[in-house]
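Task 17 of the worksheet. Students: predict the tertiary structure of the chain below and write it out as structure tokens. Keep your answer in the requested format; marks are given for formatting as well as content.
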Amino acid sequence: MKPNFLVIGANKGGTTSLYHYLTAHPEVFKPAIKEPMFFNHYLSEGEDGEFRAQKVIKTKTSYAKLFEGSENFKAAGEFSTSYLANPYCAENIYDFNPKMKLIAILRNPIERAFSNYLMYVRWGEETRSFSRALRDVLEGKELPQGKQYIYLGHYLESLKTYRDKFGENQLLVLINEDLRRDAVGTFRSICDYLEVDSNFVPDFKKKYNTNDSVEIRSFHKFLKKLDGKLNYTRLMSSNIRSYVYSKPKMKQRDKDLLKTLYGEEIKALSVFLNRDLSHWML
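Model answer:
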């Protein structure tokens, strides 16, 4: 069985939660790798070796292995957020399966940008302030795609590309707050779209991949080096823990900058989706 649906993004839009909710469904196959990013590469020959240990799948042979055992399920798919950020994937996806059902879950791009930044802070891979990170982007500094905090919030042109290629009936666009405000109703609409039992209700209480507390991993590594000289467990239970889990806050000037950058597109996106998104600018 080929995958018959893809969750294409957006990055930090809630795709991890949706992955856990959907793959808990007894009629939805759970792939060994959540985000294989296959259609960014879409090579036809060879294998990727021990594909289950890989984070990225590049060949059709390994991609097929990812869905071994899915034959008895009504729906099978994967959740690569890079597909929305890379609209050139649309052609590859269409060539692979022109009947593919696509799901995009969008988030206020201002919130999304800061959440993306916090994720890298949590991983210990971002040492800049958010203000500095935005300036670096606007100054055109070369950055990996995951740290292109502004670009990844520009959804409209990619959505147009996918809708033009697949048609309106093969692209379901959700808003992140829909899942937060009416999880059951939104999930049922997804199940109906995928033609699986909409009476199934997953455990919505558990949240995934959040930045509720920001664990600065690089600082943890530093503390662990002291182990033997100092008791790491006692150290982490002391007041220093409040620093390790401190969460940066977005400055108003950065928020205002992002409002300026996204304002016109949010208006156009509202028209495209036939949905009022003006609250994103509040």
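Marker's comment: The first helix runs from residue 15 to 23. Confidence is low (pLDDT under 50) at residues 235-245.
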